[in-house]
C-alpha cells in the first residue's frame, strides 16, 4: 500500500503511470486498505499467551472476514488490469525503490492465500487440544472458516456467469455450485429430441440459490497466453418454488432427478460421487421445506 498504491499519487512519478491505469487504483488494489485496517487490530497476537482465546477471536470477527470475499470478487478485474500494465516503468520503479524480488502481483495474491491458511492453523490447533477446554469453540471456528472459504469460492464462480438476464443478487443466497452430467426428458417437443437426449449427457454447471436453480455451460477462455479463465454461459433456470426432486434413479446411485411442473420437464443429474449427490440433495431438500 505504501510502496505502490501511495506512489500513484506521488507527483514525481505521475508521468510514468500508464494511461490504462489512470483513476483505476480501486480496481487494482480492491479493498486491500480495508483488509490492512482489519489486521492492524492485532487481535490474534493478543492470544499468544492464551491460545484458548483464539477460537473466540475468529467467531467474534466472523462478519468482518467477509471483506475477503469482496477482495476475491475484485481479483479477476485486478488481474486483467495488471496484465495490461504490469510491465510499465512505473511498477518497475516502485519495485526498485522497495528492493523487492517479487513484483506487485505476487503481493496482491497474499490475501487470497491468507484466507485459506486460517483453517489449516485451526486444524493444527484442534489436533493439539483434544477434549480440552475450548475444543468446542475451536471446532466452531474451523467450521466458520471453512464456510467463509466456501462462500468466497462460490462467489468467484458466480461472478463468471454470463448471459443471465436478471440480477443474480436477487436469487437469494448461493448455497452450492458445481459441474454435473445432465440428461433432459421433456414431455413437450418432438420425440426424437427425447430419444437423442437420453444417451449423450450435457455438461452443465449448476448454481443452487434459495430461489432459483441455474443451469450454465462452462466455457474456458485463454486470456492472451495466460491461464484459462472459466465463464459460465446461462442456459436455463428453474424456480425453486415449483421444483420437485426424486432422490434415486434406477441403475445409478450417483443420479437424482429434478423435475418441474409436475414432471413436464425432467432433469436427470449425475454427480461425480455419491457423497456429492447426497450433499446436493440435502441442500435442495432444505430449500424445498
UniProtKB/TrEMBL annotation:
An example Gene Ontology CC term for this record: cytoplasm
Entry keywords, A to Z: Guanine-nucleotide releasing factor, Phosphoprotein
One example of a Gene Ontology biological process annotation: intracellular signal transduction
Domain PH: 167-289
Pfam families per record: RhoGEF, SOS1_NGEF_PH
Domain DH: 1-155
Gene3D superfamilies to which the protein is assigned, alphabetical: Dbl homology (DH) domain, Pleckstrin-homology domain (PH domain)/Phosphotyrosine-binding domain (PTB)
Recorded superkingdom: Eukaryota
Signal peptide: none
GO MF entries: guanyl-nucleotide exchange factor activity
InterPro entries documented for this protein: DBL_dom_sf, DH_dom, GDS_CDC24_CS, PH-like_dom_sf, PH_domain, RhoGEF_Guanine_NuclExch_SF, SOS1_NGEF_PH
The name this protein goes by in its record: MCF2L factor
Species in which this protein is naturally found: Balaeniceps rex
Gene: Mcf2l_1
